[in-house]
Amino acid sequence: MNEQTGEPQKAPEPFEAQPPARPPRVPVFNLPPALFFSLCLLVVIYAVQALVLSDDAVSWLLFTFGFVPARYVIPLSQQGLELFWTPVTYSLLHGSVQHIVFNAFWLMAFGAPVVRRIGTLRFVFFWLFSATASAALHAVLNWGDVSLLIGASGVISGLMGAACRFAFPAERSPMLAAHVNARLSIIEALKNRIVVIFMLLWLVGNALIAVGIPLVGDSDQAIAWDAHIGGFVFGFFLFSLFDRAPPQPPIEPAGTEKDVLQS
Questions:
Q1: In which band, very low, low, confident or very high, does the pLDDT at 101 lie, cut at 50, 70 and 90?
Q2: With contact defined as beta carbons under 8 Å apart, do 214 and 223 qualify?
Q3: What is the dihedral sign for C-alpha 27, 29, 34, 37?
Q4: 149 forms bridges with which residues in the sheet?
Q5: How many CA atoms lie within 13 A of 154 on its CB side?
Q6: pLDDT, tens digit, for every residue of 49-87?
Q7: How far from chain centre, in Å, is Cα 257?
Q8: 33-59 residues labelled b (16+ CB within 10 A) or e (exposed)
Q9: How many CB atoms lie within 10 A of CB 13?
Q10: Does the pLDDT value for residue 137 go beyond 80?
């Protein structure tokens, strides 16, 4: 009998269980870089104003970069050039910690979807024009007034108006990330129940401010409700000039389970 020799058969190695893959870490603050830089700029300006500058320097800062309607009834030969840049620079100044914290909260809430939607460059132009629109309506309604307007509330109102055109999903539509929703026309937005309710609540809030009932803050400090309206109207009606085609959401394979986040 012929015998065949060969290497002895090795025993199979025991299966080593692989540790489960760690889920991706969800950042606490997931802000677009342009919005994060805007918030840092506002905070740095106020910090310098409150902690570094003297009272006289603060007065110069507010006069030079704050918006004053009276500048547009005085001949240019009798004043400086502040009337050309103050319709924008006033939106970078704030009068108190509570003022800047309140504005920062709403800027994060409504600025994030708008920045993701239109990108950094268009966001910069949106800020410039919405600030100008807010200041313009304030100047028209307070023509020749020597009051000083500061704060980013007009721009934030513009972002709220812009968000009404895409951020609120239509009824019976799948829930997507806000910035990938299709843009609603003005008529479609005004027919959207969620948008209408949001706009009514926003108008009621500004009506209370107009009659001297502030929602937050010091009641002794006047609030430019008209600047809010100017920004909101600008953002709502002219958002399409800044909009671009929304990014397409990723298509998930059939049967793929989504990550479950527990709070």
A1: very high
A2: yes
A3: negative
A4: 67
A5: 34
A6: 999 999 999 999 999 999 999 999 999 999 999 999 999
A7: 32
A8: ebbbebbeebeebbeebeeeeeeeeee
A9: 6
A10: yes
What is the token pair recorded at 198? 């949001």
Q: Give, in order, the Cα–Cα distances in Å from 261 to each of 22, 23, 25, 26.
A: 13, 10, 11, 10
pLDDT in tens, 105-120: 999 999 999 999 999 9
- Contact present, 203 and 225 (Cβ < 8 Å): no
**For the residues 238-245, what does the mean pLDDT come to?**
91
* CA contacts within 13 A on the Cβ side of 3: 2
Residues 169, 106: contact at Cβ < 8 Å? no
Regarding predicted confidence, which is higher, 178 or 259?
A: 178
Asked if residues 98 and 202 have their Cβ atoms less than 8 Å apart, the reply is: no
Helix axis angle for 225-238 and 153-163, nearest 10°, is 30
Closest CA to 37 of 120, 142, 96: 120
CA distances to 100, 170, 213 from 220, in Å: 17, 40, 10
